[in-house]
């Protein structure tokens, strides 16, 4: 395809979507040595499908195969998720509450003695779904040897199983997440390393991404996220030249629109597809 044809397709895709872009020329700046850094839950996965919420990696674990009926994990979600997305609270205010949520959930999961050999079945039985157009996105990046760093405050073992079962776990992918630590019988006994929640990705980036060579070699970043906390995911790349940020605004749209427009370069409103990221990665490769 000629550059002209790509230009036309690119503009058409952008026009078809309800989105806002601060500076269209930013897109051109990530052409040389690009990499993609993306959040997972509600960014690479859909937020909803046919009016039903799509499960996060944490919610995939809410399966009788893994946890008892009386486990209070869902009640914690009902308490803390509204706080996570509350436009009226500052990040500083949310921080200790997120640590509290994640710590309680990890403890509950350990109490439930989750079995490693049941994870793949739980993913298969779940309604987990990557965004429409995900295959083009993952395959195109792999084909063009563009590194994809997936940075998730979810559960790494479940995340890996989701992308494996969707046949897109390619060699260009690195993952930073909360990984389960199983004992010799395959029962969950702890979580490995420093806890990652939605608003401490900067610390995770500095301690993990700083050691990934592929990440350091690529100064131009396309960053995808659904939370303002995701904006710090590229902080582990020491020498960034340009960062183009795309924010998926899935929930509490009116309340959060202004802060998303002020924080991300492109904001996608209730868009369940990868069309815009796909148009951009195709344009820059
Ligand atoms: P992410 O960093 O991949 O988006 O994963 C974090 C999301 O996980 C966050 O937006 C809230 C969600 N979550 C649940 O759905 N259930 C839980 O129990 C916890 C702790 C988080
Ligand atoms: Mg997310």
UniProtKB/TrEMBL annotation:
Gene3D superfamilies: HAD superfamily/HAD-like, Pyrimidine 5'-nucleotidase (UMPH-1), N-terminal domain. Monomer. Specifically hydrolyzes 7-methylguanosine monophosphate (m(7)GMP) to 7-methylguanosine and inorganic phosphate. The specific activity for m(7)GMP may protect cells against undesired salvage of m(7)GMP and its incorporation into nucleic acids. Also has weak activity for CMP. UMP and purine nucleotides are poor substrates. It is found in: Cytoplasm. Belongs to the pyrimidine 5'-nucleotidase family. Keywords: Cytoplasm, Hydrolase, Magnesium, Metal-binding, Nucleotide metabolism, Nucleotide-binding. Pfam families: UMPH-1 (PF05822). PANTHER family: 5'-NUCLEOTIDASE (PTHR13045), 7-METHYLGUANOSINE PHOSPHATE-SPECIFIC 5'-NUCLEOTIDASE (PTHR13045:SF15). It catalyses: a ribonucleoside 5'-phosphate + H2O = a ribonucleoside + phosphate; CMP + H2O = cytidine + phosphate; N(7)-methyl-GMP + H2O = N(7)-methylguanosine + phosphate. It comes from the Eukaryota. The keyword Hydrolase applies. Its EC number is 3.1.3.5. GO terms for cellular component: cytoplasm. The lineage of its organism: Eukaryota, Metazoa, Chordata, Craniata, Vertebrata. GO terms for molecular function: 5'-nucleotidase activity; magnesium ion binding; nucleotide binding. It comes from Sphaeramia orbicularis. SUPFAM superfamilies: HAD-like (SSF56784). Its main location: cytoplasm. One of its GO terms (biological process) is nucleotide metabolic process. It is an enzyme of class 3 (hydrolase). This is 5'-nucleotidase.
């Amino acid at each position: 395809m000629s550059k002209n044809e790509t230009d036309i397709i690119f503009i058409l895709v952008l026009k078809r979507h309800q989105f806002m872009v601060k500076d269209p020329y930013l897109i051109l700046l990530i052409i040389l040595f690009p990499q993609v850094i993306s959040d997972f839950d509600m960014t690479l996965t859909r937020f909803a499908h046919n009016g039903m919420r799509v499960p996060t990696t944490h919610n995939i674990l809410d399966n009788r195969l893994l946890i008892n009926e009386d486990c209070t994990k869902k009640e914690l979600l009902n308490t803390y998720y509204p706080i996570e997305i509350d436009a009226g609270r500052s990040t500083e205010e949310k921080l200790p509450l997120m640590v509290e949520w994640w710590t309680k959930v990890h403890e509950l999961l350990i109490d439930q003695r989750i079995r490693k050999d049941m994870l793949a079945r739980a993913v298969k039985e779940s309604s987990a779904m990557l965004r429409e157009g995900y295959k083009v996105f993952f395959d195109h990046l792999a084909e063009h040897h563009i590194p994809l760093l997936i940075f998730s405050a979810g559960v790494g073992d479940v995340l890996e199983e989701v992308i494996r079962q969707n046949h897109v776990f390619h060699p260009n992918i690195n993952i930073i997440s909360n990984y389960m630590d199983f004992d010799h019988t395959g029962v969950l006994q702890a979580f490995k390393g420093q806890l990652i929640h939605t608003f401490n990705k900067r610390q995770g980036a500095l301690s993990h991404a700083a050691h990934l060579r592929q990440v350091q070699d690529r100064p131009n970043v396309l960053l995808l996220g659904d939370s303002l906390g995701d904006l710090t995911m590229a902080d582990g790349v020491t020498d960034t030249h340009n960062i183009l940020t795309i924010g998926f605004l899935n929930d509490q749209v009116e309340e959060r629109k202004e802060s998303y427009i002020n924080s991300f370069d492109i904001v996608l409103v209730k868009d369940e597809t990868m069309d815009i990221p796909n148009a951009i990665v195709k344009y820059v490769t």
